[in-house]
Amino acid sequence: MSTGDTYDVIVVGSGGGGLVGAYVAASRGLRTLLIEKTDRVGGTTAYSGAGIWFPGAAPIARAGAEDDIEAARAYLRYVVADDDRVPLQDAYLDAGPKLIDELEQSPWFQSFTYDPVPDYYTDAPGATAGGRTIFPPRIAVAELGDHAALVRDSIPVERLGAERGPVFDGGRALIGRALAAFLETGNGTLRTQTRLTDLVVEDGRVVGVTADSAAGQAEFRAARGVLLAAGGFERDAELRREHHTLPLDGSWSNGAPGNTGDALRAGVAVGAATELLDEAWFVPGLVHPDGLPVFHTATRSGIWVNAAGERFVNENRPYDQTGHELIRLHSSTDVSHIPTHWILDQRQIDRDGFGGSPDEPVRPEWLESGALKKADSLEELAELIGVPYGALAKTVEEFNGYARTGVDERFHRGETPWDRMYSFIVGFPAGPVMNYLIQPVPEAPNPLLLPLDTPPYYAATIVLSDIGTKGGLKTDEHARVLRPDGAAVPGLYAAGNTAAAMSGHVYPGAGTPIGSSLAFSYRAVLDMAAGTPD
Measuring CA to CA, how many Å separate 443 from each of 41, 143, 184, 403, 451? Predict the structure, then answer.
């Protein structure tokens, strides 16, 4: 093994939290090494819209939106309902606004913006209809220069053949900006295709890492600490079989391909405690023509039915709640809910499209691959997807009655602020490029309840996906990794999906995963910067 350089801080993983944490360290004059397992930076953040749930952040105030940090605190207390996570919640709420204030001083990050996205638990104390989610500004690829080639592509580009385009938005914008900011501090070093293998411990303190690359194995030393921000274990079949009740092997995950639990294993090997290993940011996944799912955020049209041909959920419910409902029903009843069948008709295809454009609502590959099935009658469709026609017909008849009145008496689709947000979105949500138009949809009493009565009929497949696991190393409010007895492992920090989630079993609002990764990476670096180097 070769001996590499010594740094002040080593960060493992280059998602949003890792890169922002590395920038925060390097901008303070700390010599910072960032290692990334794959050949691209960005992790799962690069696949995302880069929403960041940061109550009290300046962009919310600039927009004049409803925001109160104490209301947000009450909301978190209520929905998480775990006294052990109260210190993490308070640390999160404290860090978010301060981090954004700091990032907005950098010409690379510029000004974040607020866009209304309702909090996910509408009836909880402190919830707001406008939410607390902010977003990074877009950036031209040309502005990033050579840095742009290092940024992981989106799922549509990486998997579905979409063109990269001249502008990065969402997660790629955040990653591109953070990468440029980090490297241009003059204190940052990036090593891609470098995989963490072990943590180096001396006298009970983590003092560095060993890592594999094409050049062989090397040891790198960290004078102030090591931050593990390398994602979860969603792509590791062995760990998923060990900790998850359903037979999930990672192939349905929308987490980044390198997220196989390396950092989790390394932390456990030096005595770290773990929490929430049975959890993930579960979401519905729409199976695409390549046979794999893509995170499905919302359903404006049609209905979902289980193997019995029965509807079982508000199809537009916030996605993490829907994912957990799929698990609950599939595990607790005799009826299969995974996969689920999404039933549509021509009227709904004409209005909302499916994987195409206004001129071509359904792209040919959807039908050719069988990802979208088409039939002239509901009875023929039932046969194609293997559900009992009588039950499906009864379900559709009941739903059509709700569509006529505009009231979903069983599952209340269209009644919450989250649902109503999608009453104003017209687009082609299954496509490789989401090109939404925001405008009212006046043709029905409830735009989310169009009757299913216009043949031909269609069926797509929904499975259980995720955007990462959310169980990991147990940490305190400074992101210090803890042992089972509650003592900190000196020199070791964790954030993002490498750490057990601040939000426990729930998903409070749009951008909680990225917000947590950024906030606790920030807290980790502040603790390292204040400490005495070895």
Answer: 45, 44, 53, 11, 11
pLDDT higher than 50, residue 73: yes
Q: Rounded to whole angstroms, how far apart are CA atoms 68 and 397?
A: 45
Q: What percent of the chain has pLDDT over 70?
A: 95
Contact 221, 7 (CB under 8 A): yes
Rounded Cα–Cα distance for residues 285 and 252 (Å): 8
Residue 534: pLDDT band with limits 50, 70, 90 = low
Sort residue 397 into left (φ over 0), alpha (ψ -120 to 50) or beta.
alpha
CA distance 51 to 69: 18
Pairing state of beta strands 113-114 and 52-53?
Answer: unpaired
Contacts of 259 (CB under 8 A, 6+ apart): 43, 44, 230, 231, 232, 233, 234, 235, 236, 253, 468, 469, 497
pTM: 0.95
| Pairs from 378-382 (Cβ < 8 Å, separation ≥ 24) | 378/452, 378/455, 378/457, 380/457, 381/343, 381/457, 381/458, 381/459, 382/309
Indicate the SS3 state at residue 121.
coil
DSSP state for residue 339 in the 8-state scheme? S
CA distance 69 to 115: 18
Higher pLDDT pick, 269 / 437: 269
422-449 in b/e form (b: 16+ CB < 10 A) is: bbebbbbbbbbeeeeeeeebeebebbbb
Alpha-carbon distance of 499 to 480, in angstroms, equals: 10
| Cα pseudo-dihedral 195, 152, 235, 433, rounded to 10 | 180
Q: In Å, how far from its chain's centre is CA 100?
A: 20
455 in Cβ contact with 346 (< 8 Å)? yes
Nearest to 192 by CA among 38, 10, 43, 26: 38
Q: Is the pLDDT of residue 129 over 50?
A: yes
pLDDT > 90? residue 142? yes
Torsion over CA: 317, 319, 321, 327 (sign): positive
- pLDDT on residue 394: 98
Residue 236 has pLDDT above 90, yes or no: yes
Q: Encode pLDDT of 75-124 as tens digits.
A: 999 999 999 999 999 999 999 999 999 999 999 999 999 999 999 999 99
DSSP string across 22-52:
HHHHHHTT--EEEE-SSSSB-GGGGGS---E
Residue 513 has pLDDT above 90, yes or no: yes
- CA proximity to 160, closest of 354, 431, 462, 463: 431
Q: Residue 379's beta-bridge partner residues? A: none
pLDDT band at 437 (very low <50, low <70, confident <90, very high): very low
Higher-confidence residue of 355 and 519: namely: 519
Q: Which amino acid is at 314?
A: N
Residue 516 phi/psi, 5-degree rounding, is: -65, -40
Q: At what angle do helices 86-103 and 69-80 cross, to 10 degrees?
A: 140
